[in-house]
Amino acid sequence: MLPCLLFSACSGLRYIPANEKLYTGSKVKINYPEKPRNAAALQSELEGVIRPKPNASFLGLRPKLYFWHLGVGKTKGLGKFLADKLGEPPVLLSQVKIAATRGLMTNRLQNRGYFHAAVTHEVKSDEKTAQVNYTATTGTVYKIKEVNFPAGDSAVLVAIRGTQAGSLLKVGDPYNLDVLTQERVRIDASLKNQGFYYFTPDILLFAVDSTLHNQVTVDVQVKAAAPARALRPYWLNNVKLNTNFVLTDTIRRQPILFQKYQYFPDERMFRARAITKAVFLTPDSLFRQRRRDQTLSRLMSLGTFRFVEIRFNPAAAGDSAGRARLDADVRMTQLKKKSLRAELQLVNKTNDFTGPGLNVSFRNRSALRGAEQLIITGTAAYEIQTRAPANNESRSNSGAISTDFGINAQLIVPRLISPNLPLLDVKLPNSDFQPRTTFGAGVRYVTRTGYFSTANFSLNYGYSWKTKITNEQELRPIDVTYSAFSSEPAFDEVLAAKQFLRTAFQQQFILGSSYRYTYNQQLLEQRRQQIFFQGRLEFSGNVANALNGLSTKREGSEYYTIAGQRFAQYSKLDLELREYYRISPNPNSGNRIVGRLQVGIGLPYGNSAGGTLPYLRQYGIGGPNSVRAYAAREVGPGIYHPSGSSINNYYDQVGDLRLEGNVEYRQDLFPYVKGAVFMDAGNIWLVNEDPSRPGGKFNSSTFLKQLAVGAGAGIRIDVQFFVIRFDYAIPLRAPYGTPESTTGRLNLAIGYPF
Question: Whole-prediction pTM value?
Answer without folding.
Answer: 0.81
